Amino acid sequence: MNVLTIAWIALPFFIGFVVYLIPKLDRYLALGMALASAAYATLVFSAPTPVTLQLLDNFGVTLLVDPLAGFFILTNALVTAAVVVYCWQTPRTAFFYGQAVILHGSVNAAFACTDFVSLYVALEVLSIAAFLLISYPRSDRSIWVGLRYLFTSNVAMLFYLVGALLVYKASHSFSFAGVQNAPPEALALIFMGLLVKGGIFVSGLWLPVTHSESEAPVSAMMSGFVVKAGVLPLVRCALIVGELDPIIRAFGVGTAVLGVVYACFEKDTKRMLAFHTISQLGFILAAPEVGGFYALTHGLVKAALFLIAGVLPSRSFKELQEKAIATPLWIVLVAASFSISGFPMLSGFGAKILTMKNLVSWQVIGMNLAALGTAISFAKFIFLPHKKVEKPEELGKVNRGFWLAVTLLIVSLLVANLVYIEAYTLGNIIKPLATIALGWLVYLLIVKRLSVKLPRFLEQFDQLMGMMSLMLVFLFWAVFAT
Amino acid sequence: MLEACVFATVLFGFFGIILKKSLVMKIVSMDVMSTGVIAYYVLIASRDGVFTPIASVGQTAYADPVPQAVILTAIVIGFSIQALMLVGVMKLSRDNPTLESDVIEKNNTL
Hints:
The structure holds two protein chains of two kinds.
Chain A: H1 2-21, H2 26-46, E1 51-54, E2 62-65, H3 67-87, H4 94-112, H5 116-134, H6 140-171, H7 184-198, H8 207-213, H9 216-226, H10 228-240, H11 245-265, H12 269-286, H13 291-311, H14 317-322, E3 325-326, H15 327-341, H16 347-357, H17 364-382, E4 386-387, H18 400-415, H19 426-447, H20 461-481
Parallel strand pairs in A: 3-4
Antiparallel strand pairs in A: 1-2
Chain B: H1 2-19, H2 23-45, H3 65-93, H4 101-108
Helix pairs in contact in B: 1-2, 2-3
């Protein structure tokens, strides 16, 4: 298993280069890599003990692959596979697939490592690959969006590096376990870096523009697994050091509510999905022990939603309400929306129940509000008008790859139900149904008629930078107080 | 004293990123900030001594090689990211010759 783990981490980088050498095989190699990761994830679930690796002595690289990481790896594999299938018939070059494989590999590495330096390297490789994918169309707009992402994450990672050094200074090791005796400023700096990378709370406000302005497959990858590379280390820190647990949970609630408030009032499909990603990351952090399963269901469903949003005739909800969309598209859209609202039958239900069960009492109100907000914001998709398709041309940009990709994601959502089958009790089923009904009612009676436009002031580049310094001060006091 | 200078460098870099209007100046400020971070690693590495860690008779005050090795990786990553950013800025400069970030932002995203 140890050799296999190292080979699995190194393989995507090797394949990333081979794709350039043999451009004809690009799609097959990329898909093969995704399937290899999926196979590895199933091995992790079936292994009796988690894989722990310590390369060299106590300064060296440490890896840990347990079922928690297994969920994240499986998300990564399935979403990558779906994106490759989606792009199969489009005229993308080998460069795109090469970067996608490298992105996949760096995210895998970030999930597996448990020391701050390997994590830093993995996150930086990830930023570079993500930048190249975002700016792949090479328009001014995409370059600016990519540049903005790279800049924000690089500045955050500089703060993170200082924090990592302070951990080393305190315990002579870069491993996650070292945070136990690290000074508060070290934790504040490291958390700031991870919060920005993971798109959590106000430091995640770079995320809506980046996710909504990229192409559909790139947004699917960004939302599906890239932001989770920053979330898993936070979850791990919360699990290792008990005192940090309340801080992470509080961030979870704050993020869930903040994201969902923006999502409710958003008038643009892709921006709504992006804000909703922020809120869902909050759900993962709100109950760190069971965050893995939630990350899996969210990654699958959000990738499907971004792919569908990419083929809808318009991005504005207002135009979509006037113009009916094709029924087949509407059906997959509704299936995905139901899963994310926590409707029984799809695994979003099990994930929500599991998260709600592991909450601490003070979190309950906030998280229920966030669940209600999810139902409200996805009612916008569910109540879109739809019509039967007579001619295949009416479907627009949809091709076979799209259907295969979306089917893969939705079938995986159905299968993932098996992870937490105990969720299906009468009491558990009634509560989400009531939440969804209430959410729809609120949507039809209030939100649909409102035309509130939330300001985008905080999403400006300079504000993002300024927010980092505020966040740093806030985190310092939060860690200091506990 | 040295530590204070290092932190001043990091802070100057960070404020430069916020206060400077031009994208190129922002990138230069980011470089200043990362110089500060690198200097901090070197400073911490020399806590116990400044001698190269090669075993020799009568010598115990060695510098700690681990932070230095780590920061070497970070330097390489940092400069490749800067190179990538400057290429992006070159592309942007064709349509936005002044490279003022708020103008580019207004034209492209908001």
